[in-house]
Amino acid sequence: MLDKLIRKIGGREEPDLPGPPDSGGAGVPGHIAIIMDGNGRWAKKRALPRIAGHHEGMKTVRKITREANRLGVKVLTLYAFSTENWKRPKPEVEFLMKLPDEFLGTYLPELIEQNVRVETIGNGESLPEHTKRAIRRAMDETAGNDGLILNFAMNYGSRAELTDAMKAIARSVGEGKLRPDEITEDMIAESLMTAHLPEPDLLIRTSGEVRLSNFMLWQLAYTEFFFTDTLWPDFDEAALQEAIGVYQARNRRYGGIGKEGVK
Ligand code: V07
What we know:
Blueprint: H1 2-8, E1 31-35, H2 39-45, H3 50-71, E2 75-82, H4 90-113, E3 117-121, H5 129-142, E4 149-156, H6 158-174, H7 185-190, E5 202-205, E6 224-227, H8 237-253
Parallel strand pairs: 1-2, 1-5, 2-4, 3-4, 5-6
Helix pairs in contact: 2-3, 3-4, 4-5
């Protein structure tokens, strides 16, 4: 990918890259990214173990995927497991690593029926073999679908992603294919795991925390943020519609001049 871009330098052809999100429009956001927080708190409120909250959160993933697809969202990126999550107690990590198996075992047929394409970002290599197998199968079986892209961030960390991108670019410099002053923002974007995706138009974080927690730091540069106190297992169709409504109202306010002016 990076090589292709480097070859284009100085050429007449403009590289076709995923630019900043569509600004003027007040339509449905094409790409929604979600930090699905509050599963543990949901369980605690009910005197249930944390894993019960994670399991309930998985059902919300199904619900929100279906609704996003129905509304015409093109990409839904869900922060399922961060590089930091390995620090949790081993039994909890082991439970979390079984959720992709269970989710896909239960819902893959309906994802296929809904024309959803399953993808992932993150370092998949260090996931347990059974988790990798479930995800690979889902990706294979939905590869031909051209509806909603359901993109799971698994063992994802934005700084690790940027570090890898910089290593790839430095390698090109080392090989003499590229000079440092020729490095562009587009090259960096093309070196990320999201190179093939548009940038998120809307970021949602549930459960009251107001942080990015190492999620898509580069890609969120122009994204609208929506923070809600609702816990992820309680987040439903109406909550998604509310977030999209807020996004649309914000974009309408820039209707006259377009949002370019405020970037
Ligand atoms: C996980 C449920 C949602 C709330 C957040 C934490 C717990 C779905 C998946 C998944 C991942 C990949 C895939 C299919 C499904 C998942 C983890 C945790 C690690 F291809 N939910 N979910 N993965 N939770």
